[in-house]
Design brief:
heterodimer, A: about 170 residues, mainly alpha, Four Helix Bundle (Hemerythrin (Met), subunit A), about 0% strand, globular, B: about 90 residues, elongated
């Protein structure tokens, strides 16, 4: 159990440090690499929570797909040694104020809320259970969101291909 | 982490870094869903499905956004958000 807590502390420290660095870094490629570290640590947290399928999905789609896409587009659109200028000071201060006050409110409400520890038996979250619930249409069934998300994904793919393709001369 | 993402969204002027800040926000929301599902309602899998769906939406959104960014780069030769003003007028 203490190993669990140790790993949790390690992963959350990685997440916090690298997300701050990813937002504050002035070089865009480094920011992308820090984002990659954050996503990998998040999937580590899912592994701690025993959600292996979700951790695998996170690792493949986020860390494998999205970060590679982002790095590709960075390499296509800007130079590696490109540094952007410092942000406007007042914008920076306002954003810092919003972030700090919002997180203070959130942490305060979390600390004040009494969470009831669950006594229900744990449902196994292996691939079989997930797949059965995903296509079932009764209670505990998620057939409708599944269909909607597949349609949305198809529409997004077609739309992005059409947007990114070169305009032909009319 | 959510508020770090919000902070980055406000501060950054560059389109790709704004996209990365959005990824941070979605990721933190996912983490919250999954954790509450695991510790408060372990007999259900609702947070699980919700975060799977959020991941799928994030993938779709990223692909569309990157297509848009590359198109904008072709037009303006820049990916700074404040230089792409042509649509405003």
């Amino acid at each position: 159990m203490s190993l669990h807590i140790l790993m949790f502390c390690l992963f959350s420290a990685i997440i916090i440090v690298f997300s701050v660095m990813s937002v504050l870094s002035r070089r865009i490629l480094r920011a992308a690499v820090y984002l990659l570290f954050v996503l990998i640590a998040t999937s580590g947290l899912y592994f701690i929570l025993d959600y292996h399928f979700l951790a695998g999905v996170q690792l493949t789609i986020y860390a494998g797909g999205i970060v590679v896409l982002i790095i590709f587009s960075i390499l296509l659109t800007s130079h590696i040694s490109y540094k952007f200028e410092k942000p406007n000071k007042w914008v920076f201060l306002a954003a810092l104020f919003i972030a700090i006050s919002g997180s203070a409110i959130t942490i305060w409400s979390i600390l004040n809320f009494e969470f009831k520890a669950a006594t229900n038996p744990t449902i196994p979250s292996d691939v079989r259970t997930i797949g059965l619930q995903l296509v079932e249409s009764g209670t505990n069934g998620y057939a409708l969101p599944f269909e909607v998300i597949s349609l949305l994904l198809l529409a997004a793919m077609i739309g992005s291909i059409i947007i990114a393709k070169k305009e032909e001369k009319i | 982490m959510f508020f770090i993402g919000v902070f980055g969204f406000i501060v950054r002027r560059n389109l790709i870094t704004i996209l990365m800040a959005i990824e941070l926000i979605l990721n933190s929301v996912n983490l919250n869903f999954v954790t509450f599902n695991r510790y408060l309602y372990p007999d259900k899998l609702e947070g699980h499905f919700f975060s799977i769906i959020v991941i799928a939406i994030a993938a779709a959104e990223t692909s569309v956004a990157i297509a848009l960014i590359i198109n904008i780069y072709r037009h303006f030769a820049s990916i700074e958000a404040n230089k792409a003003k042509q649509l405003k007028y």
